[in-house]
From TrEMBL:
UniProt organism field: Actinacidiphila reveromycinica
Region (Disordered) location: 1-21
InterPro entries: GHMP_kinase_C_sf (IPR036554), Mev_decarb (IPR005935), MVD-like_N (IPR053859), Mvd1_C (IPR041431), Ribosomal_Su5_D2-typ_SF (IPR020568), Ribsml_uS5_D2-typ_fold_subgr (IPR014721)
Domain Mvd1 C-terminal: 200-327
Any one GO biological process: isoprenoid biosynthetic process
Domain Diphosphomevalonate decarboxylase-like N-terminal: residue ranges: 25-174
Protein name: Putative diphosphomevalonate decarboxylase
Keywords for this protein: ATP-binding, Lipid biosynthesis, Lipid metabolism, Lyase, Nucleotide-binding
PANTHER family hit by this protein: DIPHOSPHOMEVALONATE DECARBOXYLASE
Record's signal peptide: none
Nucleotide-binding found in the keyword field: yes
Length: 351
């Protein structure tokens, strides 16, 4: 892969030489959701969240420094990034440049295999890959914790995609200095017991959402009378989720994930104006998940900022769950994901 563009990490390049790096990251799906910021600039969340990084839908991002360029040049899925998408990447690179004490502009080429802006966590894989590639290209030597903190600044959920498998993202202390809060707010791996999970993903609509996650969560915090009660219950959900993961208790993991996600959607429905990502196709799949459960198979739904549904079940049941979802998903597609790897740099041979 990309052997024609080897990643190089020269620490002290010659004048005008190109430094570049390529990284891969996978999306993650939260079982305890991140919804709401307490600091927009630092991307500090209101609540802790917990997710599974997937083994499908990788994003590959290459960053090349350009000594002679006046602007960053960003390509997303083969097309020049514009507007908000460009602004977010440039702001992220500015942060990396400030830390590295370097002014070089960059050429960024990123390819998502996950639909972009569809509620399937493209911003998570996208900014995790960008964090790893940009840090390397600009010569920052960061461990996984520091990369998670950095990725957070691009998109909160990206902090979790730095790690593989299950990860918790700490909100950090509500009081204290900005620096203390920034340091404390990163993801880390979560210990699990004997759990062989799958997330069956029903892609019902791969098109981009009308309201971004960022805008929707801001509106929810600012206007939804249900937000504070969901945020308060989310702490108890997290504690129960961690215990259930350790115990390998997929039923409790699923029940808590499903209620946490439905509660998050309730907060948005109560926002003014309402934010509704669920469509009739979403509800048809949710009905089907109830039927699967009534038939004795533990399967639990979670939805993000989009109409698509992810169903948690045992890997051994994933084929059966996927077959049922195919029937319910009308024109959609269904795929089975397992726990995937953390973000990583591709080597000089492109692997
Ligand atoms: P999603 O549900 O896909 O995470 P969001 O609304 O959170 O949707 O974020 C979508 C935005 O994330 C895109 O419009 C773009 O600004 C940014 N994004 C997605 N993929 C990438 C990528 N590979 N590189 C940089 N930015 C990306
Ligand atoms: C519903 O991380 O995409 O998927 O930090 O503004 O980029 P920004 O938002 P983002 O929000 C994700 C929201 C969610 C829940 C989750 O992934 O925890
Ligand atoms: Co996102």
């Amino acid at each position: 892969m990309r052997s024609e563009h080897p990643a190089t990490l020269a620490a002290a390049p010659e004048q005008g030489a190109t430094e570049e790096a390529t990284a891969v990251a996978h999306p993650n799906i939260a079982l305890i959701k991140y919804w709401g910021k307490r600091d927009e600039d630092l991307v500090l969340p209101r609540v802790d969240s917990l997710s599974m990084t997937l083994d499908v839908f990788p994003t590959t991002t290459r960053v090349r420094l350009r000594a002679d360029a006046a602007h960053d040049q960003v390509t997303l899925n083969g097309a020049p990034a514009r507007g908000e998408a460009l602004r977010r990447v440039v702001a992220f690179l500015d942060l990396v440049r400030e830390r590295a004490g370097r002014a070089h502009r960059a050429v960024v080429d990123s390819e998502n295999t996950v639909p972009t802006g569809a509620g399937l966590a493209s911003s998570a894989s996208g900014f995790a890959a960008l964090a790893v590639a940009a840090a390397a290209a600009y010569g920052l030597d960061l461990d996984a914790t520091a990369l998670s903190r950095l990725a957070r600044r691009g998109s909160g959920s990206a902090s979790r995609s730095v790690f593989g498998g299950f990860a918790v993202w700490h909100a950090g202390p509500a009081r204290g200095t900005a620096q203390e809060a920034d340091l404390a707010s990163h993801a880390e791996p979560v210990p699990t017991g004997d759990l062989d999970p799958a997330l069956v993903v029903a892609v019902l609509d791969a098109g981009p959402k009308e309201v971004s996650s960022r805008t929707a969560m801001r509106r929810t915090v600012d206007t939804s009378p249900l937000y504070e009660s969901w945020a308060a219950s989310s702490g108890a959900d997290l504690a129960e989720m961690r215990a259930a993961l350790l115990a390998g208790d997929i039923e409790t993991v699923g029940e808590v994930a499903e209620r946490n996600a439905l509660g998050m959607h309730a907060t948005m429905l109560a926002a003014r104006p309402a934010v509704r990502y669920m469509t009739p196709a979403t509800l048809a799949v949710l009905d089907r998940v109830l039927r699967i459960r009534r038939d004795g198979v533990p399967a639990y739904a979670t939805m993000d900022a989009g109409p698509n549904v992810k169903v948690l079940c045992r890997r051994a049941d994933a084929g059966q769950v996927a077959a049922a979802l195919w029937e319910a998903a009308a024109d959609g597609t269904v795929l089975v994901a397992g726990p995937g790897p953390g973000a990583r740099l591709l080597g000089g041979d492109g692997r």
